[in-house]
Write a structure and sequence with these properties.
The complex is a heterodimer of chains A (133) and B (89). Chain A is α/β, with parallel strands linked by helices. Chain A contains 6 helices and 4 strands. Chain A has one domain: Phosphotransferase system, mannose-type IIA component (Rossmann fold, 3-Layer(aba) Sandwich), CATH 3.40.50.510. A 4-stranded parallel β-sheet of chain A has the order 2-1-3-4, sandwiched between helices. Chain B is α+β, with helices and mostly antiparallel strands. Chain B has one domain: Histidine-containing Protein, Chain: A (2-Layer Sandwich). The chains are: A alpha/beta (133), B alpha+beta (89).
Chain lengths: 133, 89
């Protein structure tokens, strides 16, 4: 079991999860944290600390919306052997993480697969189709 | 290894929700299961792999399965296509 958190600017994370839940037709077990534009980050830190403290020694992936943004920068301080952060998460990456038994296997390998799937999900479609021909 | 030609009947084709149902079902079987469309062959257990086919209503694809439960797998998946992924009455 790998736990997960998504932290984004505003409600972006909530919307992404709702779409993923609609596609997969299941409720996803993920903590959603919205970074309020007025917040100095302390509320986000407290929520993350609470989440991770409640699951000592357990694997957790934190998804953030953009490398270098506050949600990502704050999440970075929680990285350790059991906690990893994936920035710039998108729908393909989330679907990869939640779909079809992808949690089986090595933590590092699973995190890498999700990262790769998220990257592979970005295409200039005309070029992609051109490559396929 | 067995194969079956399969028509796509649902209006939206192999879109995200249909691909999710298909990959979920494929993962219930131990056999290796593939979808072949044009010159592309993708793992039916991969939601995102299925999406790369961009297969639409009216297209014909090939279902391929190899393994102990290949017959059951192909029958169940073909039935899902025939039921239009339970999207339409």
């Amino acid at each position: 079991m790998i736990h997960s958190v998504i932290i984004t600017h505003g409600k972006l994370g909530r919307e992404l999860i709702q779409v993923a839940e609609k596609i997969l037709e299941q409720k996803l077990d993920i903590e959603v944290i919205a970074f309020d534009w007025q917040d100095d980050g302390s509320a986000m830190i407290a929520q993350l600390e609470k989440f991770i403290a409640a699951r000592p020694g357990q694997k957790t992936v934190i998804f953030t919306d953009m490398f270098g943004g506050s949600p990502s920068n704050i999440s970075t301080r929680f990285i350790n052997a059991n906690v990893e952060v994936i920035s710039g998460i998108n729908l393909p990456g989330l679907l990869k993480f939640f779909c079809c038994g992808e949690h089986n296997g090595n933590f590092r390998q699973i995190v890498k697969k999700v990262e790769q799937e998220a990257k592979d999900g970005i295409n200039i479609i005309s070029e992609y189709l051109g490559e396929k021909k | 290894m067995i194969e079956k030609k399969q028509q796509i009947y649902n209006k939206l084709g192999l879109h995200a929700r249909a691909a999710a149902k298909l990959s979920h079902m494929a993962n219930m079987f131990s056999s290796d299961i593939y979808l072949i469309y044009n010159e592309d062959k993708v793992n039916a257990k991969s939601l995102l792999g299925i999406l790369t086919l961009a297969a639409s209503v009216g297209n014909e694809i090939t279902l391929q399965a190899a393994g102990e439960d290949e017959k059951e797998a192909l029958a169940a998946i073909s039935d899902l296509f025939d039921r239009k992924f339970d999207e339409e009455s």
